[in-house]
From TrEMBL:
Organism expressing this protein natively: Thalictrum thalictroides
Annotated Ubiquitin-like protease family profile domain residues: 1-101
Protein name (Swiss-Prot/TrEMBL): Ubiquitin-like protease family profile domain-containing protein
Family: Belongs to the peptidase C48 family.
Cited InterPro entries: Papain-like_cys_pep_sf (IPR038765), Peptidase_C48_C (IPR003653)
The keyword ATP-binding is assigned to this record: no
Gene Ontology biological process: protein desumoylation; proteolysis
GO CC annotation: nucleus
UniProt KW keywords: Hydrolase, Protease, Thiol protease
Length: 143
């Protein structure tokens, strides 16, 4: 999720991850920049909005196939996840969390994740700039 169309534009842009595990019937929200204890997590609120949209899409799909709506409790868990030490690396933290979850690995600690993120930056930059099929031709695009 990206907060670019956030109800809280003063918060800027922040990437978090909402995961639906359909088999376990759970949603999990990963936020690498959780607020201080006692503060409201505005990004969790937005995850709830997105979760409702996902559930509506699933229910519409099921209705077309004459299946009942989702009947399981639809709550969002907030598992602990690595916390970034700056305000710039949230997208890379999301990538690292996705990588760990999709491979079945334990989530890294914040310290380990920061070193992984630091290693990930040049790798992703190289992949993005080196992908001729999907990258921009700056000479052509910027004339």
């Amino acid at each position: 999720m990206n907060t670019s169309k956030s109800a809280y534009p003063s918060e800027g842009f922040h990437w978090t991850l909402l995961v639906l595990n359909y088999k376990k019937k759970t949603f999990q929200h990963y936020n690498s920049m959780k607020p201080r204890k006692g503060s409201v997590d505005k990004f969790y609120e937005e995850a709830g909005i997105l979760k409702n949209e996902v559930v509506n899409c699933i229910d519409q799909y099921r209705a077309k196939r004459k299946l009942p709506k989702i009947s399981w409790p639809i709550q969002i868990g907030t598992p602990s996840c690595p916390q970034q030490g700056n305000t710039a690396d949230c997208g890379l933290y999301v990538c690292r969390i996705i990588e760990a979850l999709s491979s079945g690995d334990k989530l890294p600690t914040s310290k380990d994740c920061q070193s992984n993120v630091d290693e990930l930056k040049p790798t992703l930059t190289g992949q993005i700039l080196g992908d001729k099929e999907h990258s921009w031709d700056f000479d052509k695009e910027c004339k």
